[in-house]
């Protein structure tokens, strides 16, 4: 029998049906609540709100489970690559050999950016943040492909394969160019013979007179970093992408909005914030003990960055995987004694024993280690969130598609509880106090 919930308001009962997901997650369906009762629900931060039905990613935060399209993150991390996983997320199934080959070809063909686009980088101040450049460039990219960015979902869906390849491939080139522009360095063009991660590292670190050859462990650490960030259900940036998509906006505009949402320190900016926190602890001569005590006071500006998660109330499964790969990248790079790493280890150990963190189920999240990995690879701090954006692109693309392809889709338009002034008359300037 179908489960039903009953809501009683002013002595009147309203039956509400229950929706059950494929992993037995249950939701009370309130889509007709306002029409039927005149009431809306109140859920600031959307912690209890299912904003959509999605077939991309499953998370059980209590059990520390993360799956893309049904596949456990641990299996993908062990056997797959970022590009194969991106294909899985974007298209729903792991690629066959011909599909994988075709996707790689599309990525290779699309890796250069239009030469006139290169000049756009020069318009930014030399100290512009690469996230600002990335979001602006991603949006501009659509104007170079007007046939892929029509803002007619039907037409944009017909070109979905081409558009997703353009974005996945070019985001990497744009990211590397934004770094080089910010350093006043000449652009290094992509190479056709290099795989995705090696090509990115080449565009970042080669010079016109000396190619950068990535160590396999370093390329693998980057591959894993991107794979682990490829999607994460309805987080702040993905919800933003869906929100923008729901207005009919094209994939370029929607993912550019995702970049903006990702930038903040409580989301994608956390990996950078972790390193800043470790540096300031080090500069103050603290071994982490003092900082932990301050973090426990509950002040928003003294949080232990890289700890806690809205969904995971257990060790973030991505943090476990990235921690292991981190040590092998460190060994291959010959990094033995890094003071920031030592502080990070102490912080983790101390927090995992402390009642404050245990009671609130605050465990390390993926950002706790990903900043350290990026730093070891040589990625500058202001690029950390850009790296996250490259990784998250497949998830944003797949979520855009779900919105665009939903025949019953409506524009996202939450309600509010108005708590402002009541009706009052306009006051002319000379009578204002
Ligand atoms: N350090 C110290 N205390 C914390 C932390 C932290 N990192 N995170 C949460 N708390 C405390 C809060 O003060 C609160 O305490 P209280 O119950 O005494 O008031 C309690 O834990 C619950 O915190 P909320 O803010 O309600 O948790 P929420 O789910 O809203 O926030 C968030 C999750 C934003 C990730 C938070 O844990 C945080 O700010 N962490 C640090 C930033 C970070 O690492 N962000 C990356 C997230 S993962 C990602 O985007 C890939």
Could you characterize the architecture of this molecule?
It is a single chain. The chain is mainly α and 433 residues long. The chain has 19 helices and six strands. The mean pLDDT is 93. The site of acetyl coenzyme *A has 18 residues, from helix 18.
Task: Based on the model shown, name its key terms.
three-stranded antiparallel β-sheet; binds acetyl coenzyme *A; 19 helices; 433 residues
List the SSEs and their pairings.
Elements (H helix, E strand, L loop, with lengths): L3 E6 L2 E9 L5 E3 L4 H5 L19 E4 L4 E4 L2 E2 H7 L2 H10 L5 H13 L5 H8 L7 H15 L8 H6 L1 H23 L13 H10 L10 H13 L7 H10 L5 H12 L7 H14 L5 H7 L21 H17 L5 H15 L1 H5 L6 H12 L6 H21 L29
Antiparallel strand pairs: 1-2, 2-3, 4-5, 5-6
Helix pairs in contact: 3-10, 3-19, 4-8, 6-8, 6-12, 8-9, 8-19, 9-10, 10-15, 10-18, 10-19, 11-12, 11-19, 12-19, 13-16, 13-18, 15-18
Task: Please summarize what this structure is.
The protein is mainly alpha-helical. It contains 19 helices and six strands. Acetyl coenzyme *A binds next to helix 18.
